[in-house]
């Protein structure tokens, strides 16, 4: 893969097991896999010790909108603070989010949702404006859909310096299969 001394974690033990199996199947370089809560990474003894031994992580990736699958803005910020605490000075932080303002249709849908919140008629399971549950054949998935300003505020509040962000469509021309499978998302780069 070209990278060395990779540490990976997920909140879902099943996904950690799947990642281990996939890494073994593909003969990937040794990767340290952990079951961990992103909001409490600094409390995870093995992850914290690894970061300390190496002077902090030299980069962090939070992929597949994983950060936005953490309910509650303060919890998402706790995860961002934990990543910041474990990374070395100058380390990049790459992650993805949806964006409520990504298209005219999204903006219209979120205007309607905002009106529901103002009337107190939103789904009571939702904590923050921008929260949503998606349901499909695999089950129910929580996702927070921020706007760009919200993430810029979160980066500043957690010690990260924003370097770059762009919508996927601005970065790559995806195949029909990818477009059919996935939603538009925003790619972010910040630095410690």
Structure report:
The protein is α/β, with parallel strands linked by helices and 192 residues long. The chain has a domain at 60-191: Rossmann fold. 38% of the residues lie in helices and 23% in strands. The strands form three sheets. The chain has a four-stranded mixed beta sheet. Helix 1 links the parallel strand 1 (6-10) and strand 2 (31-35). The model has no long low-confidence stretch (mean pLDDT 94).
DSSP summary, beta strand count = 8
CATH class descriptor name of the domain at 60-191: Alpha Beta
CATH superfamily of the domain at 60-191: Vaccinia Virus protein VP39
Q: What oligomeric state is this?
A: single chain
Main sheet makeup: 4 strands, mixed
Order of helices and strands: EHEHEHEHEEHEHHE
CATH architecture of the domain at 60-191: 3-Layer(aba) Sandwich
Kindly list the characteristics that best describe this protein.
192 residues; globular; 38% helix; alpha/beta; 7 helices; 4-stranded mixed sheet; single chain; Rossmann fold; two-stranded parallel ribbon
Secondary structure layout:
Layout: E1 6-10, H1 13-25, E2 31-35, H2 45-53, E3 60-62, H3 73-86, E4 92-97, H4 104-119, E5 131-136, E6 139-144, H5 148-157, E7 161-167, H6 168-171, H7 176-181, E8 186-191
Parallel strand pairs: 1-2, 3-4
Antiparallel strand pairs: 4-8, 5-6, 7-8
């Amino acid at each position: 893969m070209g990278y060395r001394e990779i540490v990976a974690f997920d909140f879902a033990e099943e996904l950690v097991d799947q990642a281990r199996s996939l890494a073994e199947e593909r003969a990937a370089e040794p990767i340290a896999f952990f079951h961990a809560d992103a909001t409490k990474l600094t409390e995870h003894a093995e992850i914290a010790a690894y970061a300390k031994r190496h002077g902090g992580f030299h980069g962090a990736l939070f992929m597949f909108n994983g950060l936005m699958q953490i309910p509650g803005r303060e919890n998402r910020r706790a995860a961002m603070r934990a990543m910041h605490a474990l990374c070395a000075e100058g380390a990049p932080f790459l992650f993805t989010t949806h964006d409520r303002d990504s298209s005219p249709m999204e903006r219209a849908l979120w205007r309607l949702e905002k009106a529901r919140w103002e009337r107190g008629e939103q789904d009571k399971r939702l904590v923050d404006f921008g929260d949503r549950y998606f349901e499909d054949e695999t089950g129910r998935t929580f996702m927070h859909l921020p706007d760009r300003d919200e993430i810029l505020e979160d980066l500043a509040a957690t010690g990260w310096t924003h370097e770059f962000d762009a919508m996927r469509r601005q970065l790559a021309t995806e195949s029909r299969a990818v477009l059919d499978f996935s939603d538009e998302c925003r790619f972010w780069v910040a630095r410690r």
